[in-house]
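As a warm-up, study this chain.
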Amino acid sequence: MNDMDKTMRRSIILEHYQNPKHKGLIDDDTYIKVNMNNESCIDEVNVQVKIEDNKITDIRFDGEACAICTSSSSIMVDTLIGKTIDEAKEILINYANMIDEKEYNPDLLEQAIVYDDIYKQPNRKKCALLPWWGIEKILGELIKNDCH
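Now compare it with the structure written out below.
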C-alpha cells in the first residue's frame, strides 16, 4: 500500500472527509473526552474514547476542522477501534514517525498510510496529527492514573 497512487490516496482522504465515520459526540460518562486545537489553523476537534477491558471499543469525534484533520480523525477511528491499548500505542508511534519522516512500520497503519507524503506540506502535518495526539493524551492519562 506504500506505493499508493495519488488518485487512490486522494479518494480515500475525500471519502473520509465527506462521510466521516463516528462523527458526532454522545452524552455518555463512560467515554473519556479531550479537546484538541491547532492554533495555526481552524482545527478544533473533540475526541471521545470508550475503553473496556483494555480495548478501545468506540471513538467519536466532532468539531470544526479542515479536510485533512477531518479525514485523519475518521481514518484514526477506523484504525483504532477494536485495538488493545498497547496495539493503539504502537500504531500512534508509527503514525507519528511516518508524519515526521522517521522509520515506521507501514503494515500497522492500515488506511492511515494515505498521509505518508504529508511531510511535503509541513503546514499540514499538525492537521493530520491533531486527532491522534488527542488519543495519545487520553491513553497517557489512563496509564498515569493506573500507576497511582
